[in-house]
Amino acid sequence: MGININIDQPRYDQETYSGRAKHFFLTTNPINIFVSNGQLEEAKNLVTAYRNKQPLPEGITEEDLWRAKTLYDSAFHPDTGEKMNIIGRMSAQVPMNMLITGGMMTFYKSTPAVVFWQWLNQSFNALVNYTNRSGDATFTEKQILTSYVMATGGAVATALSLNRICRSAPPLLGRLVPLAAVAAANCINIPLMRSQELQEGTPVYDENNNKLGYSKNAAQSGIGQVIFSRVCMATPGMFLTPILMNYLEKKGALKKRPWINLPVQVGFVGLCLTFATPLACAFFKQKAQFEYRKLEPELKECIEKKYQSPPKYVFYNKGL
């Protein structure tokens, strides 16, 4: 009996939170970053062959095809089909963020340390935001550089301002400054690194995947959802870790063994991110739907020329 699956959709039901969570637990799995380029190309070729109704290699099972689809989704951009930068993939979120976040929360007292770790964090975020952007928009080098400088500069300035305000605050509040800085910085970094979508719009499609045009309103909605998910992704590790470290400090554990400070924070943040990353990604569907009535008038006019009865919803990739 032949394989019969919908290769254009994830394996699990994306209409339910649990289905989306299962999907993202697979695609954001850090083990995926160790898959070789050869294996990724094999996965892409298998998915493409099945999508184009071409014969599959002998012995390929449905499970093999779903495994290939998971690898394909984890490494290739859903709109352009291009292989994404390995550090910018969602499967790199846990290892990269646990190291950077651990550093931010360990070295948060001196200005040079705050500048370095916030710059490193926002440089990483800028790469992730660009890699996981929505649509097929092309950026010039000047646009990327301008967005990067504004995003990282605004984020670092926010962190330094919060540090100054909380200088005389209790230790626990001081430890929470990096979380506040990251939350505020995401509100700056994500829109700036995806500014092309806000200016030109993100591609929207009908339910049969036919492109209808570009919508700035859909782009705004998608970017807002991504900001919310990213803040929620960072919150458990950056909120619970300071509480843990404050407890260890009061118990004298950090005074007796100061060397445990960094490894404990990195390890605990990594544990939190392992679960927070897929669970936060799952808050919203990646293939988001947007009400037709909320589209720009000129886009609606264009669609109404093609359709006798316009769709109730249009669909777009909101990014991650």
What is the first-to-last residue Cα distance?
Answer: 37 Å
Instruction: Figure out the total of helices.
Output: 13
SSE-based structural type: mainly alpha
Based on CA atoms alone, the radius of gyration comes out at: 22 Å
Please give the number of β-strands.
4
- Principal-axis shape equals globular
- β-sheet strand percentage: 5-15%
Topology order in helix (H) and strand (E) letters: HHHHHHHHHEEHHHEHE
How many strands, which pairing sense, and closed or not: the largest β-sheet?
Answer: 2 strands, antiparallel
Task: Lay out the secondary structure.
Blueprint: H1 17-27, H2 37-51, H3 62-75, H4 93-106, H5 111-131, H6 141-165, H7 171-175, H8 177-193, H9 195-200, E1 202-205, E2 211-215, H10 216-250, H11 253-256, H12 261-281, E3 287-291, H13 297-306, E4 313-317
Helix pairs in contact: 1-12, 2-3, 4-5, 4-12, 5-6, 5-8, 6-8, 8-10, 10-12
